[in-house]
Amino acid sequence: MSKANFKKIIYYLFREIFFVSSICLVLLLIIEDIQPGFVSFWFDIKIVLFISLISGLFCLFTSSAKNDKINK
Question: Is residue 52 classed as helix, strand or coil in its secondary structure?
Fold first, then answer.
């Protein structure tokens, strides 16, 4: 496996993790806003925020113009 191929796999993996964790974060914040204490009583929302931030940073540092389908 070449280094470029490995970097591409890491990029796509963390990009998907970033999208899923960001959507989950928004949904949890909406639920918490509608019913205060419903989410924070059972789960710490900061965990999803940290996962989203870390995966976003990995996605940012491993991205290049040729990896992203939008830039083709």
Answer: helix
Q: Which two tokens stand for residue 64?
A: 């290049």
Q: What count of Cα atoms within 13 Å lies in the side-chain half-sphere of residue 43?
A: 12
The dihedral built from the CA positions of residue 7, 52, 44 and 30, taken in this order, carries a sign that is negative
Find where tokens 């928004």 sit: 26
Taking each helix axis as running N to C, give the angle between helix 3-34 and helix 45-62, from 0 to 180 degrees, rounded to the nearest 10.
150
70 secondary structure, DSSP code: T
DSSP 10-35: HHHHHHHHHHHHHHHHHHHHHHHHHS
Count of CA atoms in the C-beta half-sphere (13 A) of 33? 6
The single-letter DSSP state of residue 39 is: T
Quick: pLDDT tens for 34-50: 999 888 888 889 999 99
